[in-house]
Write a structure and sequence with these properties.
The protein has about 160 residues and is mostly helical. The chain has one domain. The chain contains 7 helices and 2 strands; from the N terminus they run ααααβαβαα. It has a two-stranded antiparallel sheet. It starts with a helix and ends in a 7-residue tail after the last helix. About 20% of the residues are buried.
Amino acid sequence: MIPAPGVFAAGVAIFLIVLWDAFEAIILPRRVTRKFRLTRLYYRSTWNIWKFVICLIPKPKTREALLGFYGPLSLLVLVGVWAVGLVLGFGLMQYGAGSAVVMTGSQPGFLTDIYLSGTTFFTLGLGDVIPRSSLARALVVTEAGFLPPSLDTCRLSTGRSPSAK
């Protein structure tokens, strides 16, 4: 039984939205025509802010150079936004499942679940917070499988390893 099904469902919804958005933005070989997309919202808001700030620079050459940084920088930040979304989604699922973790020093709660989600997603596995229920363990195993395949997708789409120089 899930103690907080609404919170768990919110986590599942965030997880699915981020996963589908990343799929459409990186892997899908056709243009997506829906009006609401996380990536579209991200680019519309960040581009307007970036353009406003950069247009305050008086030198045209410097302004044009800084405008050129937006594309690569925004893609890196977008991947970070997706990562935060996945960590938040899995953290909400853990919290909705009742914070079924074993830890020393304090009581488990929402921040502990976000911490567990972050250390699991980035495959740190520190061992200071351990899932105790079968659902919590299943969520941890599922989440741990997301970063390595996403790095492989990045490597395959660019032809280079993310850590290659």
